[in-house]
Write a structure and sequence with these properties.
Strand order of the largest sheet: 5-2-1-6-7-8-9
Low-confidence stretches: none
CATH class of the largest domain: Alpha Beta
Oligomer: single chain
CATH architecture of the largest domain: 3-Layer(aba) Sandwich
CATH topology of the largest domain: Rossmann fold
Mean pLDDT: 94
Distance between the termini: 61 Å
Number of helices: 8
Structural class: alpha/beta
Radius of gyration: 23 Å
Largest sheet: 7 strands, mixed
């Protein structure tokens, strides 16, 4: 029994990035965390030295055995090693690979997934990013029973979270990682006493959250200003926002909606992407509805700089069109 009287379960955690760390810490504190399974080490940084995932580094600090199989499919030795742990349950938290069907039945209670959305909305690899891009005001955590399909398994427990109006994807991911750990521990307490609910998902309400591409970071000037800002927040971790100027991609570390009454739409509204003014706070640029302020930009092979300085150095004047 744990300190608060709840049963201790035999658990393995499948997770690689920082999102999984709060779950790792919670499992190590409350249950018998017998193994951490993560992606193999990968080259990173300027020197391209091998770097371990955050969960691997923390597991080693805690003296928890680490497994980093290159593949899960038809990996009999890994499956046998997992079976030897006699797990009550396994947990996935941003592991990054689809689990083969024959692995799902190894733990006594199968696999539970800590998913960063209110399923069935935003099934896929980037639920937090797409929730921001689509302007959601609420998101949350779903503890889901893993099935062979992509995030299609029954909902076991959900917790909701209001989305702060200026939250970026990295900030929201950090919040959801903590909420996910809390929800996971609650779910395991219920699982241990046979009281964890199971509710099938409504596939008709499902939306998708595919992995982001570089193109997803391109500023859509034709969108309303609030949508441009939402996309900027959603791609803040990667790939970041950018626009074209004279066929070169200019990154945008910082932008915000303009609240000026001068930006109200009308029949003579300037075309989206038109520079409306150069101010102390940056460049005011027309969108499909309203305008945004480019606060800082980063030209190719240059450091981030105030957008006003960039405009002055590149002869960008009101009336210029950004791509």
């Amino acid at each position: 029994m744990s300190d608060d009287g709840a049963a201790k379960l035999r658990v393995a955690l499948f997770g690689s990035p920082a999102f999984a760390l709060p779950s790792l810490e919670g499992l190590a504190r409350r249950h018998r965390l017998l193994a951490v399974v993560a992606q193999p080490d990968k080259p990173a940084g300027r020197g391209m030295r091998l770097s371990s995932p955050p969960t691997v580094q923390r597991a080693r600090d805690l003296a928890i055995p680490v497994l980093q199989p290159a593949t899960l499919r038809r990996n009999r030795s890994f499956q046998e090693e997992l079976a030897s742990l006699q797990l009550d349950v396994a947990v996935t938290a941003a592991y990054g690979k689809i689990l083969p069907a024959d692995l799902l039945g190894v733990p006594r209670h199968g696999f539970l997934n800590v998913h960063a959305s209110l399923l069935p909305r935003y099934r896929g690899a980037a639920p937090v990013q797409w929730a921001l891009i689509r302007g959601e005001r609420e998101t949350g955590i779903t503890i889901m029973q893993t099935e062979p399909g992509l995030d299609t398994g029954p909902i076991r427990l959900q917790r909701r979270l209001a989305v702060r109006a200026d939250a970026t994807a990295p900030e929201l991911l950090e919040q959801l990682a903590e909420l996910g750990a809390e929800a996971l521990l609650e779910a395991l307490d219920l699982l241990a006493v046979g009281r964890l609910p199971s509710q099938p998902q409504d596939d008709a309400r499902a939306t998708q959250a595919p992995m982001l591409t570089r193109e997803d970071g391109r500023v859509r000037w034709e969108d309303p200003a609030d949508a441009v800002y939402g996309r900027h927040r959603g791609v803040a971790g990667w790939p970041g926002s950018s626009f074209l100027w004279r066929d070169e991609a200019v990154k945008v570390p910082s932008l915000r909606p303009s609240r000026s009454k001068l930006d109200a739409a009308g029949t003579d509204a300037p075309a989206p992407g038109t520079v409306l003014g150069i101010e102390d706070g940056g460049l005011r640029v027309a969108c499909g509805e309203g305008a945004i302020i480019l606060e800082r930009v980063q030209p190719p092979a240059k450091r981030s700089m105030p957008a006003r300085d960039w405009a002055n150095g590149h002869s960008v004047r009101p009336g210029a069109r950004l791509g």
